[in-house]
Design goal:
Elements (H helix, E strand, L loop, with lengths): L1 H10 L3 E6 L3 H12 L4 E7 L2 H7 L7 E4 L8 H11 L4 E6 L4 H10 L3 E4 L4 H12 L7 H17 L12 H11 L4 H8 L3 H15 L4 H10 L5
Parallel strand pairs: 1-2, 1-3, 3-4, 4-5
Helix pairs in contact: 3-4, 4-5, 8-10, 8-11, 9-10, 10-11
Length: 228
């Protein structure tokens, strides 16, 4: 039995990861954190956004960690471009910027999680694992801001019940899968569609529900009793 388990472990491919961060000390810390975990392989570490956009789409990555305050272009532009070129790749923001405008812009661009710098190493490692498992890790302050925004919206707005806001059966199915914690890749396999198609459906879901992230979509859909 032990031999069989070892053989299975060897067959498991490490999670291919890249870090886009201009602070050398922080970048080195994150690289060391991931390299110490056999589940991860750090494929690249970059300090500028344009270099990341040029290189990362050719690396077949699973996760990219991106800072917002890069020296050449905004990390938000990097997120938007990467999600366009490789939608199946998870993008996690790790930054000092916690204002609502920046957070919303990053989530609209396609970020799958948003963490503030200063997070402890073990917590960062836990959140990276959660991201790979299909979660959307958020720093507590970021989660609170999003919840306040959604709750304010719920009080001030009445959802439109027109057909243009109704989810199609496929959109409903995909949102149910995401709400249960399945990743894009797992959802695509279960629903027999490509990861890019899952991403496209989620964009339409976000538009119909007037939200900007998986977390907001699940919250809003449950509020409207669209999913349970």
């Amino acid at each position: 039995m032990r031999t069989w388990l070892v053989a299975i472990a060897k067959l498991k491919k490490p999670i291919r990861t890249a870090i886009v961060e201009d602070d050398p000390a922080l970048r080195k810390m994150i690289v060391s954190l991931l390299q110490a975990d056999a589940d991860y392989a750090v494929v690249a570490e970059l300090a500028e956004g344009k270099a990341a956009i040029a290189a990362i789409p050719h690396m077949a990555l699973d996760i990219v960690l991106v800072d917002i305050g890069l020296p050449d272009i905004s990390g938000i532009d990097v997120i938007r471009k990467l999600k366009s070129l490789c939608p199946q790749c998870n993008v996690l923001v790790v930054t000092t910027f916690g204002d609502e405008k920046t957070v919303t812009s990053a989530l609209e661009a396609g970020a799958d999680g948003y963490l503030l710098k200063g997070i402890g190493l073990e917590e960062l490692k836990r959140d990276i694992h959660a991201l790979q498992d299909g979660g959307s890790p958020l720093s507590p302050m970021i989660a609170r801001k999003l919840l306040n925004r959604l709750q304010t919206k719920a009080v001030n707005e009445t959802p439109d019940s027109g057909d243009e806001t109704k989810l199609t059966p496929r959109e409903h199915e995909i949102l149910q899968m995401i709400a249960k914690g399945f990743s894009y890749a797992e959802t695509s396999k279960i629903c027999s569609v490509s990861a890019a198609t899952v991403h496209s459906h989620l964009k339409r879901i976000y538009r119909k529900l007037e939200v900007h992230s998986k977390t907001e979509a699940v919250y809003e859909a449950r509020r409207r009793s669209l999913i349970h």
